Amino acid sequence: MHGLDGLRGLAALYVVLFHCWLYTFPGYPDSSAPPWLDGLMYGRLAVVFFLVLSGFSLAISPARHGWRSGGVAPFLRRRAWRILPPYWAALAMSLIISTFLVPASHHGPPSGTSILVYGLVAQDMFTAPTPNGAFWSIGVEAELYLLFPLVLLLRRRLSAVALVACVTLPVIAGGLMAAGASPVEGDNWLAPHLAPVFAAGVGGAGIVIASDRIQRLPWGWFAMLAALPVLTLGIIQGSAWTVDHYFWVDLAIAPAMAMLLAAVATGKPALLVRLLTTRPIRSLGSFSYSLYLIHLPIVMVVIRRVAPRFVSPGLPTFWITLVVALPLTIFIAWLFSRVFEIPFKRNRSWKSLIDRERSHWIGRSAGAR
């Protein structure tokens, strides 16, 4: 669904802008940035949106087949084939940059433990110096893939609301038992907290097989109404409070995100869908995964190595980062996707991939002659 690809691309672009902002102005969440840039500080919510969108996208096909995935092993094999090759390539790139150019972790440069933990996509379960700060969500996503067959089973037996309640209520109970009912999150073990937002996406996917009467409902307006209390509270309490309470904000905003996806999937609102299906945004969505994977090392090189040679810290560094790092990151991500992502989207096995590439080069050689 091209509208969903467009949303994925815009979310990835926002994460890039967030990191341009984050590493330019110290003090997060009480940032030293000008207040008019505060809208860039919610990169975490963009990642939450990715997880809702992931649950929604993965559940569309099972929803059309009685909420069955076609088998656990084939599903996990397809996910590994789609996710791991570009991730491992980005990991290699990140290890080189964080070792020789810009450290990516306050724990120091990556170590042998980093290679083992991140190579096995186990960063949400084990702590090691990170080669790329954006990789935390890949570990969470991998764990949610393991949970997905169970979520489908629950959805097959229960309604969408009951599914989300079953996954969410234990998380809420755990959060309320924390000191001050405000859990302090670390660098890992985030998958149990974020499972409800993934489940919200799975539940929302039922809209694509619902009756015409359900599909015609104003899901876009429902999304706005669901998001309004969360946004209002964030504005009243301030950005620092919002960041410190992401545990609850994530859970509160997920239903609005799922309703937005339902609206776009059913072609509404038409103006938004037309925007999301324009060629630039659709193209951005086609390599959004690559953009997410490789953007942060490039942004940090520009901020830490390039910008100090030409401008002073603060706003001048932010502007040069936008001018240099943003287009450079998009271009490199596009090239990266052509090699490490798109071939694995177009082919389902090594044999298919090798045969396709061989045919391509044979065709080019014949054309050259």
Q: Measure the end-to-end span.
A: 40 Å
Mean pLDDT, rounded to whole units? Answer: 92
Main pleated sheet:
none
Number of strands: 0
Helical content (DSSP H or I, runs of 4+): over 70%
Low-confidence stretches: none
Order of helices and strands: HHHHHHHHHHHHHHHHH
What Rg, in angstroms, do the CA atoms define?
A: 21 Å
Structure, described:
- The structure is a single chain.
- The protein has 369 residues and is an all-alpha fold.
- It is built from 17 helices and no strands.
- The protein has helices spanning 2-22, 43-63, 72-100, 112-119, 136-157, 160-176, 191-204, 212-215, 219-237, 239-244, 246-265, 270-276, 279-286, 288-306, 315-340, 342-346, 350-368.
- α3 (72-100) runs antiparallel to α5, α6 packs antiparallel against α7 (191-204) and α14 (288-306) runs antiparallel to α15.
- The two termini are 40 Å apart.
- 40% of the residues are buried.
Task: Provide a short characterization of the protein structure.
With 369 residues, the protein is mainly alpha-helical. It has helices at residues 2-22, 43-63, 72-100, 112-119, 136-157, 160-176, 191-204, 212-215, 219-237, 239-244, 246-265, 270-276, 279-286, 288-306, 315-340, 342-346, 350-368.
